[in-house]
Specification:
Order of helices and strands: HHHH
Shape: elongated
Oligomer: single chain
Helix content: 25-40%
Number of helices: 4
Largest sheet: none
Radius of gyration: 23 Å
Strand content: under 5%
Distance between the termini: 68 Å
């Protein structure tokens, strides 16, 4: 046996945890709403409302699917729900009507 080769000491991990493989990029938790926010902003920038020179707030507050597309309205509602879920973590454990 080689005298110079000492056993590699593994860093301590809490029970139930896995070691991070340095060869793979570590994934960040997706507990923020940045992706849906970016999609929503991109969607609104392509709407008739925004192209006609209306303010972003005006477009954001419009519920007219002809002026801003239905997709943008759904993204806005999804973003609002995402923000609500971040604020109220207890909703995860609630049963029943999700929209209440």
């Amino acid at each position: 046996p080689d005298a110079d080769a000492e056993p590699k000491k593994e860093p301590w991990l809490p029970p139930g945890s896995y070691a991070i493989d340095p060869a793979k990029p570590h994934r960040k938790a997706s507990n923020s709403c940045t992706r849906i926010r970016e999609d929503m902003l991109q969607c609104y920038q392509g709407t008739r409302c925004y192209k006609e020179g209306a303010s972003f707030e005006e477009c954001l507050n419009s519920n007219d699917p002809e002026y801003v597309t239905q997709d943008c309205i759904w993204l806005r509602k999804g973003y609002a729900q995402c923000r609500r879920d971040l604020m109220n973590r207890h909703r995860i454990w609630q049963r029943g009507n999700r929209s209440a």
